[in-house]
Amino acid sequence: MSAYKTIFFLGATGYLGSEFLLLLNREFPDLHIVALLRNVTQEREAQLRALYPNSSVVEGTLDDDAVIREQAAKADIVINCASSDHTPSVISTLAGLEINSKNNPRRPPLYLHVSGCGIISDNARGEPVEYVKEWSDIGLDLKECNRRNMHLDSDIPIVEAGSRKENPVRTIIYYPGQIYGIGEGIQKTTLWLRIFLDMTKKLGFAGTWGPGANTMNNIHVRDCASGLLLVLKAASEGKADEGPEGLYFSASMEPKKTYHEWTKVMGDYLFEKGIINQAGSRPLPNEVVDPLGEYGWSLLGGNLFVKPERLAKLGWEPVETKKTPILESLPSMIDAALQG
């Protein structure tokens, strides 16, 4: 990693981003992190430096095109853990990286983007199905995915940037499954848990898109962060697949749990704590699911079966996922989210 000096980081204080920075600091503390932060305060800067002392802050949001372009144009590496579906920030990043590549023709920059397995949803609408295709990341072609699925509007331009000959960018996209567990970084709990928890508290019961028979591979946040670091190390050594081949699923092959199973655990636990008035889980009413439209049905009502063969080639194993299964983790995750 000695050839690299700076990383422009989006999402540094988030759930996966801050977990990753802890690991990065243990192995590569000499890299300088420039983190994009909104609403900068001394407290937020101190939180970041507690994770990664060799860091500085540039204030801005994902909508600040000029800020993102400027930082991407001069960083050796850009890592985006902030949002899988904020296409404008991806376009800004790629524009800055194109300038970067033009200015450094012998050393194109590296872009490591965190997306999600929603790209391969079967849109089962929560219904049980007889067969679900299991997608490998080897031979994966994003243009073969259902174009109505999530993340593709951001991901396809990234692959195209990693495929061109003029002003090329080294691109890798990382696709986590259902991330869970209590993080050691700044944000302790995953976004999907906080969304479902907030919705459950407002409704008074836990629920699913349709009957909740759909499921996906899961991954503990520590394993997800370790896989991301492994990919970065491999890329720095010229050993990672990149461009059209640089698509990495990050997921365990541990038993999958349906949305009905884990929302039932959530409903039962919150009922026992007296926070809601109904135990178990049931299909959510139209007034909840309709506002999200096909976005919600694709992401929250589909099956997402993946096989992380590229990470396996690098020697990665989901150690924490095997030790702490998702259903066993849910009560402590809920407690942490409630306290937060």
From TrEMBL:
Transmembrane segments: none annotated. Pfam families: NmrA (PF05368). GO terms for molecular function: aldehyde dehydrogenase (NAD+) activity. PANTHER family: NAD(P)-BINDING DOMAIN-CONTAINING PROTEIN-RELATED, PROTEIN YEEZ. Residues 5-82 form the NmrA-like domain. GO terms for cellular component: cytoplasm. It comes from the Eukaryota. This is NmrA-like domain-containing protein. It comes from Pisolithus tinctorius Marx 270.
